[in-house]
Please model this.
Amino acid sequence: MHPLAKLLVIALFPIAAAIAGESQTAVMDLQNIHCYACLNTVKKALRNVPGVEETKLDIDKKTATVKFDPAKTNTAALVQATVKAGFPSTLRKHPDNR
Model:
């Protein structure tokens, strides 16, 4: 690789990494959650959505907090995943209107 090209890659890498790493978080209210098996079903459904990075579920509050890459998925896909799993959800807090 040409030395100037190497320098350019080194200079731009932190910028590209910062842009690519901007995760967003959505908090969802879950319906029909009665037990830990229900939570595991929802967790599996959410983790199968491309772009989902982390899920935290709370059985007492009946919520799912999902960290995701907005370049790969959106909040509508998260809701759709829970609905398909048999547990309808609504967004409590979301960073975008997608």
Observations:
- Confidence is low (pLDDT under 50) at residues 5-9.
- The helical segments are 3-20, 36-47, 75-84.
